[in-house]
Amino acid sequence: MLRANRFYQLKDRNRYIISRIILRMILGKYLNLMPAAIQFSAGKNNKPQVKNIPPLKLEYNMSHSADAILLAVSDSAIGADIEFINQSFGFNEVLVIILV
Fold first, then answer.
1. In terms of pTM, does the model score above 0.90?
2. 28 burial type by CB count under 10 A (0-12 exposed, 13-18 middle, 19+ buried)
3. Taking all residues of the chain, what is their mean pLDDT, rounded to a whole number?
4. Is-contact 61 80, C-beta < 8 A?
5. 49 pairs with which residues across the strands?
6. Neighbours of 50 (CB within 10 A)
C-alpha cells in the first residue's frame, strides 16, 4: 500500500485503503478469485483495469467524495461519479452572480 502513504490526511489514507479492499473483495466475487490474486494494470488513458481477468467481460469504475465510496461493476463500459454537496454553501448567492 505504498500509494496510501502519499496521502497527507489520515482520513484520506484510510478511505483509499478501504476502497481498495472493497474493490478487491467485490471484483474477486465476480471473477471467482481471491482478492489478493487480482492484478491491475494501466489501460486506456491510464485507467486501472484488471490484468488477470478470465474470459469474462468486466468493467468497473470507482468514485469517492467525503466519506462516501461508489463502485460500479458492469459487463460493458461504465462510469460512476459521486460528489459531496456542502449544504451550508451559499448556492443561491453564487447563482445570482452567474445568472446575471
1. no
2. middle
3. 86
4. yes
5. 41
6. 20
